[in-house]
Design goal:
Elements: H1 7-10, H2 19-25, H3 49-61, H4 66-86, H5 92-103, H6 110-117, H7 125-131
Length: 132
């Protein structure tokens, strides 16, 4: 004998959609431009079994969960990437040399002069025909 369930018993309560959640789900929202509300979301990854085992071993060695280890590692890497693109540190002598190079660039050599005299590809008929 099978039991019948009422439709309301199988349904989950609808999730509340806050403005912050709606904004983070909106297609085209740039990464790093999520709402400032402290919300959590999930990231699903497909990884090879060997990679997962390696991550689990490393997390265990540090006494962390897989999630904590992966989030911390990814966050550190993301910060490193952004800093590599924005920040560089120089001692006083190297900074002075860098500033002097910016203020007094060398004269253009023959290769640069030739390059600057060329017609850009986007202004040539051949390129224009390929794009159209």
């Amino acid at each position: 004998m099978t039991r019948s369930r009422t439709p309301t018993a199988d349904r989950r309560a609808p999730q509340q959609r806050t403005p912050a959640k709606a904004a983070s789900e909106r297609p085209g929202t740039p990464v790093g431009r999520e709402p400032s509300v402290d919300t959590k979301s999930s990231i699903n990854l497909r990884i090879e079994a060997g990679t997962r085992a390696l991550i689990d071993e490393a997390a265990s060695a540090l006494g962390k969960t897989r999630t904590d280890f992966m989030v911390e590692s990814a966050r550190e890497k993301a910060i490193d990437v952004r800093l590599d693109q924005r920040l560089f540190v120089l001692d006083d002598d190297r900074f002075d040399a860098f500033a002097a190079a910016l203020e007094n660039p060398p004269a253009p050599g023959p290769k640069l002069t030739a390059l600057l005299r060329r017609v850009p590809a986007w202004r040539t008929r051949v390129f224009s025909d390929q794009v159209a």
